[in-house]
Structure formats: C-alpha cells, structure tokens
Design brief:
heterodimer, A: 282 residues, mainly alpha, Ferritin, globular, B: 162 residues, alpha/beta, GMP Synthetase, Chain A, domain 3, four-stranded mixed sheet, 7 strands, elongated
Amino acid sequence: MAPAMSDIMTPDAAELARVAPGHGKAAAESVSPERDLFVGLTRLGDNTLILGHRVSEWCGHSPILEEDIALANMALDLIGQTQLWLGLAGQVEGAGRDADALAFRRDAWDFRNLLLVERPNGDFGHTLMRQFLFDAWHQPMLAALQGSSDARIAEIAAKAAKEVAYHVERSADLVIRLGDGTEDSHQRMQAALEALWPYTGEMFLGDPTDARLAEAGVMPAPEGLRAPWEASVTAVLAEATLVRPASAFAHKGGKQGRHTEHMGHLLTSMQWLQRSYPGAKW
Amino acid sequence: MKPALDQVWAWLGEVPDPEIPVISLTDLGIIRDIVWEGETLVVAVTPTYSGCPATSVINLEIEAKLRSKGVENLRLERRLTPPWTTDWITPSAREALSAYGIAPPVGLAARVNRLAGSAPEVACPRCGAVDTERVSQFGSTPCKAAYRCRACLEPFDYFKCH
C-alpha cells in the first residue's frame, strides 16, 4: 500500500512507519509530559550523536595531523554529550532502553536530529561551515537549557556548555581564516555556506512538542534562539568576507523523523555492528 | 570492616590518573564525595570532559583499589554538578604536570573569559620561556591544547584552563 500524499505530510514519520504495515490499526502515541520530554531529549541527543558521527568520519583523513586530532576530540565531546542526553531520554522513557540501545537500535524515522547535522561532510571547509552554523546555535541552546525547570537537563547543559565554548571558538576562527583566505578557500567556503544555508532555518522552527516544553520551562522555544544565532553568524561571516545567502527557504522535517536520503546511509555504517550482532560488547 | 573516610580518601590518592600517571584521582579533583550509607561506601565521581574515554577506566580502578582494601559494599555515583573545573587540580599536581612535560592550567577557569579572546601566557615546561604559541585548540586529549615553544622549539601539551 503506497502512502498517500496526506500520509507523507504526517507530522510524525515514525507514526506513519508503524501504522502503515498494520493497515492503520496502531494508535497514535498519546501526548504526555513524559512523552514530550523523551522527544525533546532525543532531539538534543540525536543532534550530538549524528554530528559526532559525521565529524568522526574525518578521523585519519584530515588535511593535517593537528586538525585530525581536533576533529576527533570534538567528535568525542559530542558523543560524550550524547551519552548524557540519550541516557536521560532512556531513563525518562522507562522502557529499559539505554543510550546505546537508542543510538544503535532505532530506525531513521525515530531519529529527531536536525537535517543540517546529517549532511555529508564534503570538503574540509564544508565540514567546518556546518560545524560553525551548528555551534552558533548549540551555544545559546545550552545557555538556555541551563535554566531548565528540570534539574537533570540543567546540569547536563552546564557540563556540555563548557565544551561547546571551545567548539564555537574553533569553528568561528577557521571559517574566518578560510573565508578570508586564498581565492580557492574563499570560494569553497562561500559554496559551503550556500549549500548549507537552506538547512539552518529548521533550527528555529517550533512544533507543538516544542511549545509544550517551552511552556513548562523545560526547554527554550526554538524561535527565541534565532537572535543570538543571527548575531554571531552575521559577525563571523562579515569578518570572513563571505556573503550571506538571501533565501529564507528552510528544509524541515528532521525533528519529526523525516530525513534526507543521507540518514539511512549514515545509520548503515554507524549501526552495523549492533544490528549484525545485537548486544555485542567489547 | 568499615574504614574511616580519611583512609578511603588516602587510598584514592594513590590511584594514578590512567592518562597522566604522575597525578592521582584526588589531585585531579574528580572525586567529589565519599560517604557511608549504612554498610555501603558511596563514592561520587565527576567526569572531566563528558566524552573522556578514561572515565570508565577510572571507575574500574577506583573499584579495584577499594576492593583490594577489603571494601565489599561499594557504589559509584556519577555527579555532574558542579561541572568539573581545572581549578580543582591541587598545587602539587600542577608542579607534577609541569615536571612531566605538560604545562599546567594558567589562571582560574572561574575568572577566564575565553570568548573575550584572552590568550593565557603559557610557559614552556621544558625551558620555561613564555614565548609560546598555540598550534591547536585540542591536543592529545580533549583536556589539552597543542602548543609550541618559540624559544626552544619544543612542542608540548597545555592542560587547558577549563
């Protein structure tokens, strides 16, 4: 049974994937504060997991040794933060899933990361531009989360914020150096900016889950993060002599489980071991 | 057997950090609390960086040490608040780091505003010159940055003020 257009537009792709084989019999998951919290936490943890995995793909392939080490260290920070976010998500869900189970045993439609972080690495400049656009959002996001009404979220955010301060400093420095660098590096950075720009708008689009979490003081409303993001992006792009794209078009859907074709390929590589040998341990 | 808490602190002061063996777990400031809850010894440990791969090894070594001393009922707790800072590294450990070839953190994290572009004056652990430059934000581990001494040309790790 091919999904109809209205099915494709469903707000939750995971729901569609579960419902379709049962010919519409499965009930939609009910709304509850616990469910919202689980969704919000997986959004945070999936961002750091998928970006951490992408950045780790550079290990052994960077242009110079110092950059290789720096990228691997940033990937490590992101994976460490993932363990905290997804660990808490599993605890909140109460279904016996730990961070590893959530990372390695879910399908694409159950991942809620931004589309930006699943974009392929491209060249070194492209990777750095993606990192900067994300870091410039991640930093104010973590700052806001430190004021969460949920103390468990506030303490993870306080820990992660100290690490992300290094990330944003480094990615901003390199975007400036490469943007305001040689003709070749400048062109590559401008091309990266234009390719990634349509994936930035999703960071600021809220849905009903976001609204309920913001109402409860658990997580900030995504819309409110645009101003601090704009401020740092505008300043860095100007110093990097890069031209900000005019289009406001935004690809969206990652937060609801509707991903690009790249996500399945990424998961195939990331989840292979646990899918082939479930529960395998070192 | 219920050893005194001071004794337990002293034992953990003998456990070296797995990556920087010249300093101990207590020197590093990651043991946050030790208490007896009834017959169970509870040790609260805070991670340095959330992704630090040494964390699980550290937990293993704490357990091995205390078991070897006869502690039977033991529970390790992860404590995230307040987040670990290099301000907790003891003065003697800072000297040990320097002697080992790792420049210790300069200043107090509580006072450093990294984003204001304030670059610390890091002295070369080999020759002591302060004419050094940062090569990369990240060194051999997340907690260190890669530096180079312009005077003696020695590359070295700087334990970042965090």
